[in-house]
Design brief:
By secondary structure, this protein is α/β, with parallel strands linked by helices. The protein has helices spanning 4-12, 68-71, 74-83, 110-125, 142-153, 181-191, 197-203, 205-209, 232-245, 261-281; strands at residues 20-28, 33-41, 55-59, 91-95, 104-105, 108-109, 135-140, 160-164, 219-223, 251-253.
């Protein structure tokens, strides 16, 4: 969790274009504790008191929290797109998932936190349109892994899903493969120590893609830097090939870039435009 001062800054910050960032928290039934959220409201939210908006739920990377959306400069990119009329207005809800990989595992029921609890809170406390087509999901790195998994295993929850630099691995990492201690500790926190192989397989987007029904899936976009220092471009390319083999419609890119937020900031406009187009096509 960020310090109280950082959360207060999020609460008070308003952009020059009229968009607003708020910090929130709510009681998660799935985790049986309070969970922090960051909310970005579009410029017209306060002025149009009766208007309802679609919502984009965003999932952070490892060792981060819900503050990433503002702290990493992603909210500012969206502000610029809104100012230029490049994407429709919508509400952003960033969810704190700790180091959980947003799975239902030893750390708690974090997938349910996203697909059930956060959605229920947002639709009950913000002026949002409801239903699958009014919801989109976007994740970065660890959060990208989760977004893709949810797209393939819970397709009824979100109408469009996007991911950047998703942590897609061909097999469970080991020290023999060169995995570092911090990497193994992080995976153990989410998947158990030793890693629960059944949970890993059930949560793996690559495994899900090999058997997914191509009908009824969300609109899907993902990319990874071609120079990703963790080699995640290989897993992302493998997912692309598996989805193509199953006849799953999707958009995929391997632009230049490494793993990190310099890369994410260079491509986040692609995913924001993608979810905006999905909403524009909704009747």
């Amino acid at each position: 969790m960020r310090c109280a001062a950082a959360l207060l800054a999020l609460l008070l910050l308003a952009t020059s274009g009229g968009a607003e960032l708020r910090s929130e928290s709510f009681r998660s039934p799935s985790l049986q504790r309070d969970v922090a959220l960051a909310v970005q409201l579009p410029p017209s939210y306060d002025a149009r008191s009766e208007a309802r908006y679609p919502a984009l739920y965003v999932l952070h990377g490892l060792f981060e929290d819900q503050g990433f959306w503002h702290d990493r400069g992603l909210a500012a990119v969206l502000d610029e797109l809104w100012a230029g009329g490049a994407v429709p207005e919508f509400v952003v809800v960033a969810v704190d998932g700790g180091r959980s990989f947003f799975v239902n595992g030893p750390a708690g029921r974090y997938e349910d936190l996203v697909v059930q609890d956060a959605v229920a809170w947002a639709e009950g406390h913000l002026r949002l349109d409801t239903g699958r087509d009014a919801r989109a999901l976007l994740g970065v790195s660890m959060g990208g892994y989760a977004a893709l998994r949810i797209a393939l295993s819970r397709p009824e929850r979100f109408g469009s899903v996007a991911a950047h630099s998703a942590m897609l691995l061909a097999r469970i990492p080991t020290r023999a493969d060169g995995a570092r201690s911090w990497h193994l500790r992080a995976l153990g926190h989410a998947f158990g120590e030793p890693i629960d192989r059944e949970l890993w397989a059930a949560s793996d987007p690559l495994a899900l893609a090999a058997r997914v029904d191509p009908e009824g899936l969300p609109a899907l976009y993902f990319d990874c830097g071609a120079g990703d220092r963790y080699g995640l471009f290989a897993g992302n390319r493998r997912l692309h090939e598996a989805l193509r083999a199953r006849g799953v419609a999707h958009e995929f890119a391997l632009p230049p870039g490494d793993h990190g937020y310099a890369y994410v900031r260079s491509v986040i406009e692609r995913s924001l435009r993608f979810v905006g187009r999905a909403w524009s096509r909704t009747p």
